[in-house]
Description:
Blueprint: E1 19-20, E2 29-30, H1 50-72, H2 78-83, H3 88-108, H4 115-118, E3 126-130, E4 134-140, E5 146-151, E6 162-164, E7 175-181, E8 183-184, H5 213-224, H6 231-234, H7 238-248, H8 256-259, H9 265-275, E9 288-290, E10 300-302, H10 305-312, H11 318-323, H12 328-334, E11 335-336, E12 344-351, E13 354-358, E14 366-367, E15 376-378, E16 401-407, H13 420-434, E17 438-442, E18 445-447, E19 457-463, H14 470-482, E20 486-491, H15 536-553, E21 557-560, H16 564-567, H17 590-606, E22 611-614, E23 636-638, H18 640-652, H19 660-668, E24 677-679, H20 684-688, H21 694-699, H22 709-730, E25 734-738, H23 773-792, E26 801-806, E27 811-816, E28 819-824, E29 831-838, E30 842-849, E31 867-869, E32 880-886, E33 890-899
Helix pairs in contact: 3-17, 13-14, 15-17, 22-23
Organism: Melia azedarach (Chinaberry tree)
Protein name: 1,4-alpha-glucan-branching enzyme/amyloplastic protein
Amino acid sequence: MTSLSLRTKFSLTPNSCPFYFHSPIKLGRINFPKSGKIKIKVTCSATDQPRRRQQQQQKYLKKKRSASEAEKGVDPVGFLMKLGITHKAFAQFLRERHKGFKDLKDEILKRFFNLMEFSTGYEIVGMHRNVEHRVDFMDWAPGARYCALVGDFNGWSPTENCAREGHFGHDDYGYWFIILEDKLREGEKPDKLYFQQYNYVDDYDKGDSGVTIEEIFKKANDEYWEPGEDRFVKNRFELPAKLYEELFGPNGPQTLEELGEIPDAETRYKAWKEQHKDDPPSNLPPLDIIDNGKEYDSFTIVDDPLWQEKFRSKSPPIPYWIETRKGRQAWLKKYTPGIPHGSKYRAYFNTPDGPLERVPAWATYVQPDADGKQAFAIHWEPPPEFAYKWRNTRPIVPRSFRIYECHVGISGSEPKISSFNEFIEKVLPHVKESGYNAIQLIGVVEHKDYFTVGYRVTNLYAVSSRYGTPDDFKRLVDEAHGLGLLVFLDIVHSYSAADQMVGLSLYDGSNDCYFHTGKRGFHKYWGTRMFKYGDIDVLQFLLSNLNWWVAEYQIDGFQFHSLSSMIYTHNGFASFTGDLDEYCNQYVDKDALLYLMLANEILHTLHPNIITIAEDATYYPGLCEPTSQGGLGFDYFVNLSASEMWLSFLENVPDHEWSMSKIVSTLVGNGQYSNNMLMYAENHNQSISGGRSFAEILFGDISEHSPDSNNLLIRGCSLHKMIRLVTFTMGGRAYLNFMGNEFGHPKRVEFPIPSNNFSFSLANRRWDLLTNELHSNLYSFDKELMKLDENERVLFRGLPNIHHVNDTKMVISYMRGPLLFIFNFHPTDSYVNYSVGVEEAGEYQIILNTDEFKYGGQGLINEHQYLQRTISKRVDGLRNCIEVPLPSRTAQVYKLSRILRI
């Protein structure tokens, strides 16, 4: 049990010595580089005063600690020094946070063997099958006085399967333990030996081998022991009986005088050797007993080194024990499960406020309440022959990410909730064809109300039953991997649903089990509950949840949703000026920051290829810096400003007033972290959170009979492509698109709610529009964007070199690797020969033109203009230039096809 864990000196710091993990996850060996030896000369004198010795010891420990940290490369303010930032208050905050981080790990290691054991609580907490014919249930409810499991397997009885406080089943930390024994069928007898197992999982197609226990033991003895070696194993009392006979038998000494003085060990040994000098050779162990001359050691056993090596080379007869295991057919013949697969159940607690029934916090499959009925957990333990078996390995992590964000429920065309299987058949092939290399799923974790999109999570370990079973979701991930697609999960650990009947609120009757009490325990505006990140058991619950999705469902990465909600007590609803004081004042939740640091450190140690993405509207300093350098340890952060800028331009700013400088500054962001930036022109926020998609803004008001409809279509199509091209190629190494936006989905998403009479008419995707000319052209261009990165590695080539920004003519030009990008955002002005500077002299070929007919353009550039030769003329601070045609609202991508040597 958790409370019996031992303390260890192992930790997951970046430069710890090698150590091993033993876990069903099959992580193998985790190696860290060894730090060098610290040579410090220490002198002391026996005549020193105690206070002086204590001061010297403290000074030494402090010096050793600082030297060790410096050698390991740990610097709590490292990223501030790297960026040249001097801010005394924030630097002090980072140092205190680093100390709190070490103290937190020390506190954890008082109860757990290491951080892996701490972060894999799902291996023992929750419902698990035990090899000894039973199912074990463990749950954390420190405020409860009584715990039981109720369900259809026991007639919903609160007394049949229970554990009581003060009895076996409840520890000091509030973990309850209940055993559900498998039931012997009528006429069957219990096993004779404790290791005689009926294997439920492996070799399920095999029945009883027909070999008896006696035959197994005889086979083991015959093959394991050599002749004579098992003499005293089979006859354990032979030697003591002979000694007893010799000392106390009728022919032995009758008095102490007759017994006489017992010779020393060496004398007895020599007498025994003389007595047996004529014995025939034997293969028995040559163990001789002689006196070693020590007062505290009356005799020593001296053996033959060759025989000792021979004995040590023997393996214990484990294979014979395993042979006693029966297959599942024999198991079914003898037992019925204590809780059958598919059983409905809940946890029953007796609390100071009365009895409660709750869906267990660690439940892996939950049926939300429907038609006014209370929710319940479903025991998911399918027979092994029907359980899902993984077929595909995880794809190699690419150097840049083209992420396709999806919501399974709205992924179909029909007015209903789509399933995992329908998503596999219809959406995954489309994602692969479109050229993306990863999918990001939102709303997969179980939540109570469908209209909340999946952000008010109720059961963090359960995949939503609306879309299918856990095995269906495994198939989705497996099929995605088979297509070469990574699978990311949008994880919500920043808050939780306030529902008491299915979520974690008032779980054990107390208000401070998983969440803060009082105002701090509730989101200021959303009414959701806020986790108590300073509690070790809450940390175990959340960190184990991350590892659960990786271990059970082979998830490749996480986007941490709405970090600003958790790292500030005002939930991020405050004005930010960028002053570092705002990131270290009294409104910052240090416990939440420590949780994020611990999550990234553990995830990246246990799963080196995992990807973590931070969604934080406040851009907390050090999001993507290593935890050893004072950062939070994320791989990427989401640039939320880009989509807000484009939405503001489209809705509020006339086309001719768009600022090119603002576009560039917003898309480039902070140059120090641009490579770690995930960009998107629009994601689900524009179409789900009460807003409109860009296509709805651009094309929604166009009437076929309007005289300006053609011009409006040209404008909408041009801007739709240009916005995506500049966002895709000017940002970091990751790009995201929401499902359907790549072909200009014309309608917003609206989930069924009372205001629309629970209609599903807008809770779907119009895949049929791909046959429409306009949407087909937009989709063709989006595929070319993905192909551009696949062929030219645009996103991986580092930051763009932006050398031309003209707000008057509304032209932007920049280089990224060998590619030259030129944009003319002007709504009316076209330029016949526009001069743009380039560094390398040569011939530049257009490889992508937004104005081509196949992308819905007008084809204003002739084919002979696709190849441009440089002119030796200094423009934009560069040695050469090219003069290119720039029609209004168009963009071109040039590639240096031939270098000219001057």
